[in-house]
Write a structure and sequence with these properties.
The chain has eleven helices and 13 strands. It is α/β, with parallel strands linked by helices. The protein folds into two domains: 126 residues, 3-Layer(aba) Sandwich (Rossmann fold), CATH 3.40.50; 139 residues, 3-Layer(aba) Sandwich (Rossmann fold). Helix 3 crosses helix 11. The chain starts with a strand and ends with a strand.
């Protein structure tokens, strides 16, 4: 049996273990939250390194890929090196292939329509998702400045995202990671305040914790495209009037794992580091596993 463990800086209340048979092999897939404790994450990478086939890193990006350039976040990269023999996958390469496939599928089946207004929470870390919505003719706003930097200005062009990446990421990637992303129990906090970017959008797409943290109480009729959802999250969305939730990864016994988990599964099957895996190899394996279709939950 192959063993995949996602070590997350998120809350341990979201831990989950799932056993599956994929392409004739059995997999045990687990998520272990460290409640924002970096030392605990590093300890788990060291301790479990001899036991697992591949790791996921949850709640932490190692790589940001706004366009053709790749930027490495200093702290998460350092943490990942605690696993000395096994790949540590943050999901960046898998997301770049999987999320556009799901978006295009949503338009092909008529679930989403051209000219819909889409808020992508952060396009620097989900550039290819943002590009997919743009390519389908949506009116897009990218929330990198208001939701990551606290500057209340929306970005509407991918060229601006690439410029911001080239200008700011060489500095931002060296900052303490907790300045950039909610960790541990802080992921549970929700502002519940009116927000003009959310009010404008028909579709809100991106990281679950960014969405939960910033979404207003009134989300009536909106569609959310995200990942790592639990039953509790779906109940929260239902209470706010959200019409449907689309996840980019399949439901696994009541929840959806993050892209880091699927990237780790793929690394264990292909025997390659994510950065050495081609887009075609990802596409072929996605097709073989039959996970290219979006998981749609109507609320």
């Amino acid at each position: 049996m192959k063993k995949i463990v996602s070590v997350s800086l998120g809350s341990s209340s979201r831990d989950h273990t799932y056993t599956a048979e994929l392409l004739g092999e059995k997999f045990e897939i687990s998520r272990i939250g460290t409640d924002g404790d970096v030392d605990r994450m590093v300890e788990l990478f060291k301790k479990l390194d001899p036991e697992v086939n591949a790791f996921g890193m949850g709640g932490g990006d190692i790589y940001l890929r706004p366009g053709n350039r790749t930027y490495i976040l200093r702290e998460p990269y350092k943490w990942s090196k605690a696993a000395s023999t096994k790949p540590v996958c943050d999901g960046a390469y898998f997301k770049a292939v999987m999320e556009p496939m799901v978006v295009h599928n949503l338009f092909q089946q008529g679930f989403l329509k051209k000219d819909m207004k889409v808020l992508v929470m952060t396009a620097v870390d989900r550039y290819f998702l943002a590009k997919a919505f743009t390519d389908e003719g949506c009116k897009c706003v990218f929330g990198d400045m208001p939701f990551s930097l606290g500057i209340p200005l929306g970005v509407t062009g991918l060229g601006t995202i690439r410029f911001l990446g080239a200008t700011l990421l060489p500095v931002i990637t060296k900052l303490p990671y907790h300045w950039l992303y909610p960790l541990g129990s802080s992921q549970e906090k929700m502002k519940d305040k009116p927000n003009r970017f959310f009010a404008w959008a028909d579709v809100v797409a991106g990281d679950l914790h960014y969405i939960r943290k910033n979404m207003p109480r009134d989300m009536k009729g909106k569609i959310v495209c995200t990942n790592t959802t639990t039953k509790k999250n779906l109940d929260e969305f239902r209470e706010r009037g959200i019409k449907a939730v689309v996840t980019f990864t399949p439901d696994m016994n009541g929840r959806t794992f993050g892209a880091n988990v699927l990237e780790a599964v793929f690394a264990s099957i292909l025997g390659k580091q994510p950065k050495d895996t081609t887009e075609k190899e990802y596409q072929n394996l996605i097709d073989r596993l039959g996970i290219q279709k979006p998981n749609i939950v109507t609320l």
